[in-house]
Design brief:
By secondary structure, this protein is of the alpha+beta class. Helix content is about 55%, strand content about 20%.
Length: about 70
């Protein structure tokens, strides 16, 4: 299993961090590229739509998982 890596990003003018395993991070980068978004813009989009009781790292994993389950191409 891939170790969890902590990453930092600036969204809506403030610095935050999230922790993801490399496979989730790689898929997130691929999704951002496919959608022609920066990674920060995609993270901000997920952050805006996540339930407030869900942390950002979990929301990002669930976003990647949902796209994979729907068969949405990366």
């Amino acid at each position: 299993m891939s170790p969890v890596e902590k990453r930092s990003v600036t969204i809506r003018g403030h610095r935050t961090s999230y922790s993801l395993e490399k496979p989730f991070y790689d898929d997130l980068v691929a999704i951002a590229a496919t959608r022609k978004l920066t990674l920060a813009a995609l993270v901000a989009e997920v952050d805006e739509t996540r339930p407030r009781d869900t942390n950002l790292s979990s929301a990002l994993r669930l976003y990647v998982l949902e796209r994979a389950k729907r068969g949405t191409s990366l």
